[in-house]
Design brief:
alpha+beta; Beta-Lactamase; binds adenosine-5'-diphosphate; 5-stranded antiparallel β-sheet; rod-shaped
């Protein structure tokens, strides 16, 4: 369509279409500027046109005036000239008459009188002969006496002499202006020569009043309009008046100011000596003209000023408009980009606006929503009543500041949760025009919240159901950050229990005291990160308030708010403690029983051992009885025999005592025991068995062994057991007498950098078969017919309860097994831990 218009325009009015195209090409800002500047330029052009027109008219008028002045002054000059010429004619006629001798001096005076009376400008007429004597004279009575002449007088030597001589030479009438005193009215003289038969015979001297010449020579209409004056050749005023120069104030530009319009012209017969000047009186035109000029000028200036003011105002408006447009665009962009749905309602509850986010959320387009009233299409049918009530509240201004949650139906029928906030819409006048509602889709936040709360629930359920008490408290504070159900059950909701456990378990906790408050960091220099990961303490404590044994584990952690906190997990281990105590009691009983069993096994050996002293006692007693009966005993022999008997009895008693002290059940009792003593006692007991089995026993105890912190009875039990097993092994192997030997050694050693004392029992039996080796320490495992199979098991328990270790190995002689070595070591400086005291770890 435009294509068809443009060529047409081009054809019809090419400049117009060019202008239009040029106009369209301009930016809006330039268009605005042009639109504003054009009127200003027009006003300026108008002002310039007015000024030039005014100026032109003024020039024209001045020209006209000048012309009129010239014409009128010329006219006046003509009249003055005419008048002078007429007088000159008349005088020349008188002169002719005088030459013709028609006039005598009397006649001359009469005719002069007539002339002076008739022509008032003529002041005097005098007939002067060639010797400058006044032959006749008539003066007007008004002539001052100084200027009057007497007939018969000779002219004063200087008076008109040059003119007189000039007239005599020229034989022509000559006008002259006598140089007279300034106080007198200036006069104009006319010398007309007289001839007497072509001889110079004097002059007729006529004197005009210049003032009169002006008054009577210049026509009245000219003198009414102009200030007419006569000046001499040097410009001196002779008669009449001149106007003062105008525009003295200088408040008008020179080209506008009315100049004095004047013209001057020399009066012809007189020549340059007399100049007629006419000055036009000032007409009202100058005033009117300048008034108009100023009016137009002021109006133009005001128009220009108003245009500039208007232009500035418009410019400010345009700026405001641009700012508004920018703001509107910004808000529109913001509205379009944000994810919050916006909906505006008018006061009647009609939708007046929805933003793209609202449309996108609900799936309804803007035209489908704008203009709708309740029920809105995005209301779920089920919630319609509730939403209607909600809308009523909203329209009545009962809004909830925190917003409210609603369900919203999408166009496809699906529902989502949204939170809506309502705020009033206020127009620029401060009136409320409706309500603005923002809507946020909270399905995702809801889902996350539900997930979070579910996970929190799981977390708390697990923690609550835990059969350990869990508590978290920040360091240096009484606050309890977290406590699970068991903690609350045991200690209530106070940190007391937490702190007590921390203190009892010996975990370094540094509660801030008042003195330490000024410390910046209570763990000065300590990297707390390491603290949280590294320091995890484990201790068993007894809490008297609960009557329970608790296993306390604690560790540092960074709490959710960044504070360093300590978590304490306490497990009730009272039942375990009970079981352990029972087990240790049982173990004790088992050890005692085992010792009894050992003795039971050794019963025949013991009996054999006891048999010797008892037999000796019997022999001694029988010997003494028969010798006393024979009466052949002396007192000395009897005494000797009794002493021997007592010694044997003592020996038997010693054996019994040793056995009794070995099998006596006693509380576990650790003392600083001497290795040599323990070895000695064990050897004494074992020898009973070894002797019966015909096995030699040799023992070696290293000198200056340190004392061991052990229960000596238990260590002796281990040694006796090992030696008895060794003797039995040798017996079973039926070794020849030369190979029947057992060796016991106690020597100091280093195991893993730790000082220990090692006990070794070396036999010459058949050693340990591989299947026996695997089950060696098993309880009730025995290869012997009469064996109980608990000996080695107990031995290992005893050694390990003393932080020692036990091992067995075969000794080879070539490919043959030449015997077996049982050894165990006990630490020298082993601190007795509480665990060592209680933990005998017997599996019954
Ligand atoms: P018991 O002596 O009552 O059989 P032990 O626990 O003392 O119970 O020994 C278990 C088994 O270990 C023995 O039956 C035996 O087979 C083997 N044994 C123990 N000591 C030796 C040893 N010095 N030489 C060979 N075998 C041994």
């Amino acid at each position: 369509m435009q294509d068809s218009v443009v060529p047409e325009l081009h054809e019809v009015a090419p400049p117009m279409s060019w202008l239009r195209r040029w106009w369209r090409r301009q930016t809006p800002g330039r268009q605005d500027r042009f639109a504003m500047l054009a009127p200003l330029a027009a006003v300026m052009l108008f002002l310039a046109a007015i000024i030039s027109a005014f100026w032109y008219l003024r020039l024209e008028e001045m020209d006209r005036e000048q012309e009129a002045v010239r014409r009128d002054v010329e006219y006046a000059q003509q009249r003055v000239r005419l008048r002078l010429l007429e007088r000159q004619e008349q005088l020349m006629r008188i002169a002719r008459d005088i030459a013709n001798k028609d006039v005598d001096p009397e006649e001359f005076v009469g005719r002069a009188e007539t002339l002076v009376i008739q022509y008032p400008e003529l002041q005097s007429l005098a007939w002067i002969d060639d010797r400058r004597r006044i032959k006749a004279d008539y003066s007007a009575p008004s002539l001052p006496p100084q200027q009057q002449r007497e007939a018969g007088d000779v002219l004063k030597p200087g008076e008109t002499e040059t003119t007189f001589l000039l007239v005599r030479d020229l034989q022509q009438p000559v006008y002259a202006q006598p140089a007279g005193g300034t106080e007198l009215a200036p006069l104009l003289q006319l010398h007309v020569p007289l001839a007497d038969q072509a001889r110079f015979a004097g002059v007729i001297l006529a004197e005009y009043s210049i003032d009169g010449l002006l008054r009577y020579g210049v026509p009245a209409e000219v003198s009414a309009r102009y200030a007419v004056s006569l000046h001499d050749g040097k410009g001196r005023l002779l008669a009449g008046q001149t106007l003062p120069p105008r525009n003295t104030a200088g408040w008008l530009p020179s080209w506008v100011a009315p100049r004095t319009n004047e013209f001057e012209v020399p009066v012809t017969p007189v020549g340059n000596g007399l100049v007629l000047r006419g000055q036009a009186y000032r007409t009202s035109l100058g005033l009117v003209g300048s008034g108009l000029f100023w009016l137009v000028g002021t109006l133009s200036a005001m128009t220009a000023w108003m245009l500039i003011g208007n232009w500035r105002h418009t410019r400010r408006r345009v700026q405001a408009q641009q700012a508004l447009i920018a703001e509107t665009n910004f808000r529109r962009a913001m509205e379009n980009s944000m994810l919050t749905g916006m909906r505006a309602l008018d006061m009647q509850g009609r939708i007046t606006y929805v933003n793209p986010a609202f449309c996108q959320m609900t799936g309804w387009s803007e035209p489908e929503l704008v203009g709708r009233t309740a029920p809105f299409p995005y209301w779920p049918d089920a919630d319609r009543e509730q939403l209607n009530a909600r809308l009523d509240d909203e329209l009545n201004g009962r809004t909830t500041p925190g917003g409210f949650q609603v369900r919203v139906k999408r166009k496809d029928g699906s529902l989502f949760d949204a939170r809506m906030y309502v705020s009033p819409l206020i127009d620029p006048k401060g009136h409320q025009t409706g309500w603005m509602t923002s809507m946020t889709d909270i399905t995702e936040p809801n889902r996350i919240r539900e997930q979070l709360s579910a996970s929190y629930e799981r977390f708390t359920t697990v923690l609550e159901a835990l059969d350990a008490s869990v508590s978290v408290a920040p360091l240096g504070s009484e606050e309890l950050l977290f406590a699970n159900k068991l903690y609350r059950l045991w200690f209530g909701l106070h940190t007391g229990g937490h702190l007590q456990m921390v203190a009892q378990a010996g975990v370094p906790d540094q509660p801030r005291t008042d003195e330490s408050l000024d410390e910046v960091d209570s763990f000065v220099g300590l990297p707390t990160g390491q603290l949280t990961t590294a320091q995890s303490e484990n201790a068993e404590i007894f809490v008297p308030e609960l009557g329970k044994w608790l296993e306390v584990r604690s560790r540092y952690l960074n709490w959710v708010d960044g504070r360093l906190a300590q978590m304490v997990i306490a497990t009730d281990i009272t039942p375990r403690r009970h079981a352990e105590e029972q087990a240790s009691a049982q173990a004790e009983r088992a050890q005692a029983a085992s010792r009894l069993v050992t003795m039971g096994e050794m019963a025949s050996s013991v009996a054999h051992e006891l048999n010797q002293p008892l037999t000796a006692i019997n022999n001694y007693c029988n010997g003494m009885v028969s010798r006393i009966r024979g009466g052949q005993i002396r007192e000395d022999d009897l005494l000797k025999a009794l002493e021997k008997t007592a010694h044997q009895a003592q020996r038997a008693g010693q054996i019994i005592q040793r056995i009794r002290s070995f099998v006596r059940r006693s509380e576990p009792n650790r003392t600083e025991a001497d290795v040599a003593t323990m070895v000695g006692e064990a050897v004494e007991l074992a020898e009973i068995e070894l002797r019966r089995r015909n096995v030699r026993l040799s023992h070696y105890v290293a000198a200056r062994l340190p004392k061991l912190l052990v229960d000596p009875i238990l260590i002796e039990q281990v040694l006796v057991n090992l030696m008895k097993n060794a003797a039995e092994a040798i017996d079973h192997a039926r070794r020849p007498p030369a190979q029947r030997s057992v060796e016991l050694r106690a020597v100091p050693r280093q195991v893993d950098g730790q000082a220990v004392v090692e006990f070794t029992v070396l036999d010459t039996g058949k050693g340990l078969a591989p299947e026996v080796m695997d089950r060696l320490y098993e309880a009730f495992f025995s290869t012997k017919v009469e064996g109980m199979g608990i000996g080695l098991n107990l031995c290992r328990s005893i050694v390990e309860s003393h932080q020692g270790r036990m091992q067995a190995e075969n000794i080879y002689n070539g490919a043959d097994i030449a015997g077996c070595r049982f050894s165990f070591w006990l630490p020298v400086s082993g601190a007795i831990s509480s665990a060592a005291n209680k933990d005998t770890g017997v599996v019954a």
